[in-house]
Amino acid sequence: MGVYSTSSVSDGTEVRSPFGSDPNQTDYVVFDRVQKSYDGTSLVVKDLNLSISKGEFLTMLGPSGSGKTTCLMMLAGFETATNGQILLAGRDINSVAPHRRGIGMVFQSYALFPHMTVAENLSFPLEVRGIAKPLRETQVRHALDMVKMGPFGDRRPAQLSGGQQQRIALARALVFDPALVLMDEPLGALDKHLREHMQLEIKSLHERIGITVVYVTHDQGEALTMSDRIAVFNDGKVQQLAPPSEIYERPSNSFVAQFIGANNCLPGSIEEVQDGHAVVRLATGERITAVMVGVCKKGEATSVSIRPERVEFKPELMAHEALALDAEVITTVYMGDTLHCRLRAAGSDNFIMKMRNTLGQIKLNPGDRIKIGWHPDDARALDPV
């Protein structure tokens, strides 16, 4: 947990200024060519260049071992960068102790003191900073109200549910009014319904108070729901940095396409390039058109990406430029609001089509032969899988 330099004036109010703070700083957090190695040979983080704006909610998303948590720990000061600089409000903080960085932390494990009441847990970080008791009590009440836990100040953590404990952990990170809060898989221990509720709570809180948040998760749905931007990590590098809609709708490579949401990938080779689109000959002989991503050249191998919800099995109702492929239904799974059909198509036995569960929806049975299609702009020619 971070700290603010504090001083009191004669009327009892406290003057706080975060370490190196500049309210006009656009790039509030900057990773400049940052590397991290634990053994002196292999790099866990490789030449990271990343800027985070003041007031932004940025999520570091990726699989285990991708480098996202290491980046968060370097920003917090619990790990030291092997090379490069980490700047906070324009100042290099590589040599600044964690407790002097002005950063709040929220962990998956909550890390609440079990022998203290909720109010005492929140008051403790203020007390060690030498803040007077009347002001501590005011700030604790304010922090509890922010997370809608005002009536729970006298309870102990063991008397709270998991969601309530997470709210208290969040309040403790906010109680000293930091300009930056880091969250490391904070909702991982909650059940699905509560996790989704807390996602919206945290997003709403961020929008209300305008604090800068760096959030780490491997849950793609969580990242899409909460973030202003997402940095997708893999193999120690950022594969794509963009708003959630762009990450999902326009993945920059095959890793991002497959990691973010369900995705169909069809291997093939590029036959033609024209007007930002590539004509691809699939391995099974069909020719389809897809949006080019990066530099595509004739004869190069590619992987065509199509989201399951963009696949339609009534191509006659689509625009005239839509294509049609033969497919066979293998199975249909009822998901409540949607139906997921696994098809045999274009050489794949795991081609997925999602359909809305609506009145009058045509029922598909195993063995049915259908035509499927999609708009060319919904397919993307990416690097080979």
From TrEMBL:
Superkingdom of origin? Bacteria
InterPro entries in alphabetical order: AAA+_ATPase (IPR003593), ABC_SmlMolc_Importer (IPR050093), ABC_transporter-like_ATP-bd (IPR003439), ABC_transporter-like_CS (IPR017871), Mo/tungstate-bd_C_term_dom (IPR008995), P-loop_NTPase (IPR027417), PotA-like (IPR005893), Transp-assoc_OB_typ2 (IPR013611)
Main location as per UniProt? membrane
Q: Where is the ABC transporter domain?
A: 29-260
Q: Where in the cell is it found?
A: Cell inner membrane
Q: What class of enzyme is it?
A: translocase
Keyword Chaperone on entry: no
Alphabetically sorted, this entry's keywords are: ATP-binding, Cell membrane, Membrane, Nucleotide-binding, Plasmid, Translocase, Transport
- Which Gene3D superfamilies does its entry note? 2.40.50.100, P-loop containing nucleotide triphosphate hydrolases (3.40.50.300)
Record's PROSITE patterns? Answer: ABC_TRANSPORTER_1 (PS00211), ABC_TRANSPORTER_2 (PS50893)
What are the boundaries of the region Disordered? Answer: 1-21
Q: How does it sit in the membrane?
A: Peripheral membrane protein
Q: What's the EC number here?
A: 7.6.2.11
Cellular-component GO terms for this entry? ATP-binding cassette (ABC) transporter complex
Q: Does the keyword Nucleotide-binding apply?
A: yes
Q: Which GO terms describe its molecular function?
A: ABC-type polyamine transporter activity; ATP binding
Annotated Polar residues bias: 1-11
Q: Which reaction does it catalyse?
A: ATP + H2O + polyamine-[polyamine-binding protein]Side 1 = ADP + phosphate + polyamineSide 2 + [polyamine-binding protein]Side 1
Function in brief: Part of the ABC transporter complex PotABCD involved in spermidine/putrescine import. Responsible for energy coupling to the transport system.
Similarity comment? Belongs to the ABC transporter superfamily. Spermidine/putrescine importer (TC 3.A.1.11.1) family.
Record's subunit section: The complex is composed of two ATP-binding proteins (PotA), two transmembrane proteins (PotB and PotC) and a solute-binding protein (PotD).
Q: List the PANTHER family.
A: SPERMIDINE/PUTRESCINE IMPORT ATP-BINDING PROTEIN POTA, SPERMIDINE_PUTRESCINE IMPORT ATP-BINDING PROTEIN POTA
Query: What protein name is recorded for this chain?
Result: Spermidine/putrescine import ATP-binding protein PotA
Natural source organism: Rhizobium leguminosarum bv. trifolii (strain WSM2304)
